[in-house]
Amino acid sequence: MLRIYVIGAGHMGIAILLGLRAKNQKIQIIGVDILDDRRKLLASHQIEALPQLPALSPRDTVVIAIPPQEFISFSHSCTALHGHPGLIVSVMAGIRMAVIAASLKVKQVVRAMPNTPSEVFEGVTVYCRAPELSEMNDRLVQQLLGVIGHFVAVDNEELIDTATALCGGGPAFFAYFADCMRQQAESAGFGRADASAIVIQLLRGTAILMSESGKSAMQLCREVMTPGGTTERGIDVFEERKLRSIVEDALSRSAQRSRELGDSITITDEA
Q1: Per-residue pLDDT for 22 more than 90?
Q2: Is the pLDDT of residue 267 over 80?
Q3: CA distance 154 to 216
C-alpha cells in the first residue's frame, strides 16, 4: 500500500489530507504536525497524526506543506527526510527545488501549488518536476494530483510563483469578491442566508456554464450585457475604476511575494 506523509496541517495540508483520504482507500494517509491541536483536528477526521516524521520506507511519499519561512529550521531538524530516495512534493510558496534538493540531500523533488478546493476534489494544481525525477514518480504525482482535482505540468519553475498567486490565492480572491456581492445584497435588503445562497450559486452556475459551454469568460460576459442595459451599466463601473488593472496588480504582487520568499532562502543555507 502506498503511504503518504503530509507534513504541516495548516489549511493547505488539511485540504490535501482530506481530499486524498476521502477519495482513495488504497492510500495510507498520515499527517505530521508538531502542534497538538492540529493533530487532534486530524484525529477528529479519522486521519492518523504524528508529532514528527518517523523512519521512512524508500517507497514512502512525503508532501511538505509547512510555511516557507520554517523550511530551513525544518530541514536541519527533520533528519528522517535527509537522503530520502522516494518522492518529495513541496507545496511551500517560493521555496525552489534546488534549495529543497540541496538542503535535504534528495533528488526526487516536485514543486507544486494546489489550492484548498482540493478538499472537495475540485482543486487545481500547477507542478514542476526536477530534472532527475523518475518516470514512475512523475506518474505517481499525476495520480495523486488527479485525485484532488485538475493539474497542469510546467517545465519553467518560475511559473510556480505565478501559480501561487493564481491557483493558491485564487480561491481567496474569488471569495473576497463573493463577500463583496453578499454584503451589497444584504445592504439592499436580502437576509444573510439568502444573500449567501444567491452568491454561491452564481459562482457555481457560472463556473459550470463556462466549463460545459466552452465559451470564453468574456463571451459569456458580452452575452449578458444587453446594449444600454443593467449589466452594461455595472461593467462600465468596473471599466471606469480599472478593475482589470486592480486584479492584475493583486496577482502580480502575490506572485512577487512568492519570489521574495524564494530569494530569502538560498542553497548556502543547506543543512
Answers
A1: no
A2: no
A3: 23
Per-residue pLDDT tens for 205-226? 999 999 999 999 999 999 999 9
Give whole-number Cα distances, 253 to 120, 214, 246, 249, 256, in Å.
Answer: 28, 30, 11, 6, 5
Q: Given this chain, do its domains 2-156 and 170-256 carry the same CATH topology? A: no
Residues 6+ apart with CB under 8 A from 86: 56, 57, 58, 59, 60, 61, 62, 108, 137
What is the residue extent of each domain of the chain? 2-156, 170-256
pLDDT above 90 as % of the chain: 89
Q: Which CATH architecture has domain 170-256?
A: Orthogonal Bundle (1.10)
> Is the alpha carbon torsion for 81, 87, 92, 96 positive or negative?
positive
How far apart, in Å, are the Cα atoms of 251 and each of 244, 246, 258, 262?
A: 11, 9, 11, 17
Helices (H), 62-134: 71-77, 97-104
- Which sign does the torsion angle of CA 16, 22, 28, 31 carry? positive
Please tell me the pTM assigned to this model: 0.89
Closest CA to 61 of 9, 124, 136: 136
CB 95 within 8 A of CB 110: no
Yes or no: domain 2-156 corresponds to CATH 3.20.20.140? no
Q: How many helices (H) and strands (E) does the chain have?
A: 11, 8
Given a contact cutoff of 8 angstroms between Cβ atoms, the answer to whether 51 and 68 are in contact is no
d(CA 87, CA 94) in angstroms, rounded, equals: 19
